[in-house]
Structure prediction request, 332 residues.
Amino acid sequence: MKRPAYVWISCVVLFATRAEALSTPSQTAKNVATQILQGAGAAEVDLNQYNLDSLEQIEAEWKANLVQKVTEKEVRPNLDVQSERTLFADRVQVTFPRKKDSGLGIQLVEIAGGRDDGLGITLVSGLVKGGSADGMDIIPGDSITNVAILRQRRNSGDDNDGPPGLVSEVQEEFKVNTECLSYDATVNAILSLPPPTSSSSNYIDEFYCVTLKRIRRKPKISVNLRYPPSQGEPDETLELFAGENLRQGMLLRGVKLNDPLAKRFDSKTGGNCGAGGLCRTCAVTITRGAELLNPQRAAEKQMLEDTPRLRLACKAIVGYGMREGDLTINVN
Prediction:
């Protein structure tokens, strides 16, 4: 059952920790989830251009699973997307000052819930004007996975038995997990965070750090293949997604790259190394869009130093920097 509502939040302490002294957080939004698209590297473009336009589609795409990592003993809920081939759940961190005279101000809506264990799917439906989150990079369809209060406290030597006149800054963090919770469980969790400190305390700054999951489409790369006239093969165009290995992506789409006349770099004989980067049988010539590929590593550079326009398809990742565009290659 959907329950549109907003939380005028003074922001559940599930755990509280003390961190080392840190510099003052700024009012920022940081993307940390592009690792999902392995090899694509850090984003060099505004990832919001890949957001879905339809809130109805966003709600239909969210799914909750129970997962367990090899290094973890406990099973935990994880929010992900239905269409994993074309979409991904990005992770976005937004940090902004906590207003003492107002709450967090995030409107929430539950799209799945009603369980006795409090699990469900709760999404952002809007921001409350004047709340701490007003104007931040938090959009309808996002799901809040955790909320933290960051407090910076100034200690003087007179307060902590240190040398007189010595002033130090310590940051404390109070954090709650809200991933895959129902509306009620989400609200209860956030409301259990400590209230704002009084103006007479030693705390000099307070910030919210909100971690969100956001559905985005994967950046698309149009790969135009040009075959030698002697092969009698018609040119064709393939669609790959950012983070895909060029050789593997082409093989999955029925295109074989192994050049039977090419010599291996290691043994100077024929033969395919099986994507180990030890031969040059999958080398292709890049005629357009080389910037859409990851930089060459030392071994590949050494192999192809006499032919700078060549790339080993087995070591090339498309959509580097989370960019999309056209890539034209000559199949050798």
Observations:
- The CA atoms of residues 268 and 279 lie 9 Å apart.
- The longest strand covers residues 203-217.
